[in-house]
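## Example record

The block below lists the input lines for one assembly entry, exactly as stored, with component labels intact.
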Amino acid sequence: MSIQRTYTTVIERLRDAGLRPTRQRKELGKLLFDGPDRHVTAEALHSEAAASGIRVSLATVYNTLNQFTDAGLLREIVVDGDRAYFDTNVSNHHHFYHVDSGALQDIDGTNVVVSNLPEAPHGATVERIDVVVRVSGARQ
Amino acid sequence: MSIQRTYTTVIERLRDAGLRPTRQRKELGKLLFDGPDRHVTAEALHSEAAASGIRVSLATVYNTLNQFTDAGLLREIVVDGDRAYFDTNVSNHHHFYHVDSGALQDIDGTNVVVSNLPEAPHGATVERIDVVVRVSGARQ
DNA sequence: TGACTTTTTAGAATCGTTCTAAAAAGTGTT
DNA sequence: AACACTTTTTAGAACGATTCTAAAAAGTCA
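Predicted structure tokens for the full assembly:
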């Protein structure tokens, strides 16, 4: 029952995004969107899927993460050149980045204000302002 | 004369950083630190060196950029998972990032304030706060 | 079900970056 | 200047995250 309901929700999300609800997209979507917000890498999601008994190739995990991002279901975070992080929280927010562990932690963006920024270069449109607070020395 | 003076400056910088003033480090240092602040990638600096008649391998360019960064002579900027950018401006500042062209532009950091950030996670030390304003649609 | 389009997949390819281990260069001492 | 010693440079291999390829599988719709 609850599985059915959840699945329906994911299917709707996919349909709204113009993505066919394939088995892989539904199952990965369920992992990603069922439960609290999270940050994943492609490898981590692939391992998690495998551990949950979901059969999906790494290429499909990459494709799916990119498609979800293009559709606005995920947001890509750049904090480290080594790997791409995807965030299920697509609302206005920023991040703590633990440089030692690679862990990310959300900072709610509703109260954060970046003031005294100069105007955007002539002709340019601001797409997004990312604030990354790099911290070290704490676990998680 | 002026060349000699410049070289001396680079040599001092290298010595202060605990780096032996090898031919490659002096020449790359001259390209990087002579003149206004700039943003480079390893490939771009390697090409520029070649164009200036400087014989240096790509591996050495990478090594040198990393050593300069560790020594505080450069700062690494993460805006894009595809390549690493190095900034000769190591003072407090932020960036406009032109997503179309990959170009970076400095934003002086003396007036920029990020307010209402939550406290750093318990036990963590803030290393740095990076603000990246992603813009599109303008050339430059 | 059939006809058609999209998606998935394994494995190859790509590309920025790092590693390796051997040659070259820098340093301090005689 | 030559020596002994350490560090650096180098070409090319290796690496790792990500994308590409083109063939098989699955989804869609009449």
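The radius of gyration of chain A is 17 Å. Residues 20, 22, 24-25, 56-60, 63, 81 of chain A lie near DNA strand C (CB under 10 Å from a C1').
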